[in-house]
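Z., the sequence and structure:
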Amino acid sequence: MTTIHCLGSGLVGSFVIKELLSEGMKINVVDIEKKTYHIKHDLVTIHVKDAYTYCQEITNTNDLFINMLPGSLGHKVTKLLVSKGKNIVDLSFSENTPEVLHKSAMKSGAKVLWDVGIAPGFSNMLISYAARIGEGIVNAEVRVGGNPIETDEKWSYMAPFSPNDVIAEYTRPARIIKDRKICILPALSEIHKINVKQRGIMEAFLTDGLRSLLYTIPANDMNEYTVRWPGHIQKFIEERNAGILDLEELIKKWKFDAKRKEFTWMEIKVECNNGEKMSWTIYDEGMNGDSSMARTTGLVTSSCIKQWLRDENLISEGVHPPESLSNEVIFNVLQTLRDEGVIIEGPDIRF
């Protein structure tokens, strides 16, 4: 019997674990802090332990590891698991992306599917699908953000995942495609206003979210923008430039408040080589006590995991980004989101 090892049980991790209970498999939850996980179930065993140490001790070969650890720790653990030839779904948002481990994975027999969240993840899948249907693409734009529904006089924001990873988004230079070349621009540049249908005027700015798309889908131009309420990012820039930005204080101020209503919104626009234009918008406000970011991210992750459990040949040995998944898998992910009440406007997936 395959055992699923869930590394990390924060907002997204807890949701993924809950979704995987339907598979009827044993689940080991590994978290340095037991208090972060609240679901009790006969199939679940909680290990209050450092994830790296835990993975060092694992000897079973057929298990599946779901890496939902933050940033650099996530990459460190994936590297270890690859060396041991494991099957891994990597949801950690590390600056060091796992494609650098491809040769090691081929040597050890490891299989890695990475960045299968909402963005990166579902955004990559839709752009990849458009490229297949449209005989390649001319340009693509992704705009995405999770935000509180009501603004305030401070940051008008709370972090729906690790605040440290959010800060990394704000400080990491943004890599984009311009004139068919990879260009590096300052993070937070190209600030512009957009209209979010359900919420009104917001702001978008460049962040380093394309990741694997920089190398897998040829295009003339491709960009990814993070979306926030007007004034949020300007406040960050002004405090940073004045030397008064306290990152430790930000982590406290941006702590997620489950009682505060919030939403996740994403827009993908693609212009194809055959002249066809495709666009999708995704919107969710959370449900049944689960945040919108946990739902939209976790439903994509859990759908990919369930499909892999049912088809061991979903991916081959090596390291694979979300855009490598088939149209059928992408269709199933989209349908899962819709079935769970996430609003998706745009063309259906054909396969």
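Residues 95 and 173 are 11 Å apart (CA to CA). The first strand starts at residue 3 and ends at 7.

Let me know what you think.
H.
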